[in-house]
Amino acid sequence: MNKWEKMDKDYIWHPFTQMKGWVENPQLVIERGEGVMLYDTEGKGYYDGISSLWVNIHGHHRLEIDNAIKEQLDLIAHTTLLGLINKPSAEFAKKLVQAAPEGLNKVFYSDDGSTAVEAAVKIAFQYWQFKGQPEKANFINLGDSYHGDTVGAVSVGNIDVFHKAYKSLLFPTYKMSCPSFYHSKVDGIANEEAYLAYLLSELEEFLQVNAKHIAAMIIEPLVQAAAGMLMQPKGYLKGVRELTKKYDVLLIVDEVATGFGRTGKMWACDNENICPDLMTLSKGITGGYLALGATLTTNEIYDAFLGEPTEYKTFYHGHSYTGNNLACAAGIASLDIFTKDRVIENLPPKMTVIAKYMKKMNAMQYVGDARQCGMLAGIELMQDKKKKIPFDPALQMAGGICQAARTYGLIVRNIGDVVIFMPPLVSTVEQIEEMLKKLEKAMTTVLSKVGNGQHYSDPCAF
Ligand SMILES: *Cc1c(COP(=O)(O)O)cnc(C)c1O
User: Fold this and answer.
1) From the CA of 10, how far away is ligand 1's center (Å)?
2) Nearest CA to ligand 1 atom 11
3) Which atom of ligand 1 is nearest to the CA of 255?
4) Which of 243, 286, 308, 389 has its CA at a distance of 20 to 30 angstroms from the CA of residue 7?
């Protein structure tokens, strides 16, 4: 154990990590990165197959972003947006609005995905008070939704393992069925199109009766990533937008995971040509360099908060580091790379490689469903794929695969028994192929031992 590993184990409590297993097992110390590679203190290289937990877009140690931060650092690192303007946050807001779906005109900055969601929820809630309809005060969310870990974001979340313990602390919401057909619990639905019809009629029936007391519906568009890359039927997002509009309910689209090219288009919203009333961004927003969140909204909503100071319509919400200069400088540099390198235009051949491997993996005995949306993929294991019987969670099957992948030089991380694959967008076709070969090898190694009773084990994963 080197001194950093010892210091870490002595002093750090890691996120989403069972610390008992963490301290008992050897852990990697990452020292530096270059492109899509991470290097540990021994100098060993690993592909960053999950974009450093879904944030990295253009690779590590990326010259343009490094320089943008250094140039800003030579001027000033941070000033407050409470009562002052700073140059990078103004310029970045303009660029975000230009890149965002038509209709989103204002940017409210915060620190991360969770705070972007908190702001969206509070704005939606207060909007109706200013419109003279304070009874519109409740929220609709989806089964298996994830919107972050602060208490408001957990209230609109729905993943039992993460959220159940806090139930009595949360505000209640109205839950619609999880839109993933593979995970549907409704009997007698033959295919995805029929499931789509079911989901939209479920929502419409609910809205017909309840819209008068609903402020907003919040959804992760196309993919519920944190639940294990659960995918929605084509047309679902558009259908939800049409119904929320029809029944005068705001739509909050949480693009924290799906934004900045992950679905193959700049925004998941672009796949179905919709514009929400509020859109939350984080993760890829600075290219994966610094923490920053943003809540984008329409002029209609922004205008509802205008008034004299003594009308108390001010949005009383903000964070110390709101609109941080360095983070916004990184964000500008990242958006510039999207344009300069034609990042979105270059994605299709990369997506094709992922599709090829998902097809191969789907044919494997213990793979229940290997699924993909653009540059996002999830491989869900099943003990019995026909009957959809999962493995005993104690076996830590997917965790074991992720651990084996490390020995081959690939970092990936599982969510339950789903292996997540989300390479940086900058990865070349060859690099993606190389990563997926390593993943396939790790899967073969671990899955060939099924039935021998051993633990496959990454005891600190969830
Ligand atoms: C990660 C995530 C969040 C939370 O973002 P943090 O930066 O971790 O607070 C919110 N919503 C979605 C869809 C996410 O994937």
Assistant:
1) 28
2) 147
3) 13
4) 286
Compute, in angstroms, the gap from residue 146 CA to the centroid of ligand 1: 7
Task: Please give the mean pLDDT across all residues of the chain.
Answer: 96
Asked if residue 454 belongs to a domain, the reply is: no
Whole-angstrom Cα distance, residue 59 to residue 40?
16
Atom of ligand 1 nearest to the CA of 153: 10
Confidence at residue 195, expressed as pLDDT on a 0 to 100 scale: 98
Minimum-distance ligand 1 atom for the alpha carbon of 291: 7
Q: Which of 50, 256, 289 to mutate to test the pocket of ligand 1 (most atoms within 8 A of CB)?
A: 256
pLDDT in tens, 138-193: 999 999 999 999 999 999 999 999 988 999 999 999 999 999 999 999 999 999 99
| Cβ-contact 274, 238 below 8 angstroms | yes
* Sole residue written with tokens 């200013």: 130
Please report which confidence band the pLDDT of residue 453 belongs to, taking 50, 70 and 90 as the band edges: low
Chain segment 243-297, per-residue pLDDT in tens: 999 999 999 999 999 999 999 999 999 999 999 999 999 999 999 999 999 999 9
59 pLDDT more than 70: yes
The predicted structure's pLDDT at residue 462 = 41
78 and 217 assigned to the same domain? yes
Q: Please give all residues whose beta carbon lies within 6 A of any atom in ligand 1, as ranges.
A: 112-114, 117, 146-148, 220, 225-226, 254, 256-257, 282-283
Where b means 16+ CB within 10 Å and e means fewer, 87-120 reads ebbeebbebbeeebbebbebbbbbbbbbbbbbbb
Percent of the chain with pLDDT over 90: 96
For residue 451, the model assigns a pLDDT of 79
Domain end point (choices 305, 325, 340): 340
For residue 146, being part of any structural domain is answered with: yes
The answer to whether residue 460 is domain-embedded is no
Nearest protein CA to atom 6 of ligand 1, as residue? 113
CA 117 to ligand 1: nearest atom: 10
Based on the fold, state whether residues 225 and 372 are members of the same structural domain: no
Q: Average pLDDT of 13-35? A: 96
What radius of gyration do the chain's Cα atoms show?
A: 22
155, exposed or middle or buried, with CB in 10 Å at 0-12, 13-18, 19+?
buried
Measured in Å, residue 286 CA sits from the centre of ligand 1 at 14
Which residue segment(s) compose the domain that 332 sits in? 66-340
CA–CA distance, 295 with 287 (Å, rounded to integer): 17
Centre of ligand 1 from the C-alpha of residue 384, in Å: 32
| Residues 226 and 159 sit within 8 Å (Cβ to Cβ) | yes
Indicate whether 176 and 273 sit together in one domain.
Answer: yes
This prediction has a pTM of: 0.97
